[in-house]
Amino acid sequence: MTVINLQKFITDYVRNPKIRRFPFGSIDQYNFDPGEKQLLKDLDFNILNKLAIDLQRKRAKRLEQQFPEFFEMIKYSGSYSDYLEEYLSKFNEAYITPENEMKNFIQFSTCYIENNNLPEYFIDVAKYCYYLSLTLIQSFETSPNEGDIKIDCPLQIVRPFNIIKLNYDFESIMEMIDGERDKPIIRKHSIIVQKDFYEPGDLIINEVDEQLLDMLVSNYSLCEILNSFNNNEDVKEFVIDLYNSNSISHKEN
Fold first, then answer.
1. What is the pairing mode between strands 155-157 and 161-168?
2. CA 193 to CA 188: how far, in whole Å?
3. CATH topology for 145-171+190-253?
4. d(CA 27, CA 46)
5. 38, pLDDT greater than 60
6. CA 138 to chain centroid
7. What is the pLDDT of residues 194-205, one digit of tens each?
């Protein structure tokens, strides 16, 4: 007698909420032999349920820590239990790398939001959480700036960075969740997310004008940027602040 099928059932039962909800409706798919069926009757499901609940609680806690704003919002919407069950049922491997967890999260969340006709701003929050989490695990490719910014030197955005294009004002979404407003503000804009050179566990988030963002991506110099903005002092000060905070640097030839 082998117990391979029984072991598979126990593993699925502990990790998959849907199997746990209807365990005996799923039995046929495991092709138990007579010996395994007898062992199945002797299983202590109370112990299995305690183990399953503990594992689910730990997994949910990790997800909430990795994507906090999204889970605040999904709780606010009343969809938390359904979302979590669907997610954990789909991704029930014993170990998932942070990279794969992030890919699973953004792909699943986007489909879940669309399939359940949830508001469009849910997509913004999912993207925001995904790119913040992604940036934290990426590595620096340059060194901190030395000296002052050179007006004629091409500039570049310091890696790692991720650009997030949002359709809603993010703060207004969080204010809605906190009960401070009835609905979020529609406002298309872009933000750059980067790691802090001196505190790698922290992130620097800057909202950047679309024209200026395109220029930085295209390696314009400060002189070229100021010419395009008619020597606007606010733009000059903002670009210098980006340089001083190591968000942009001189591009080496």
1. unpaired
2. 16
3. Outer Surface Protein A; domain 3 (3.90.930)
4. 18
5. yes
6. 13
7. 999 889 889 999
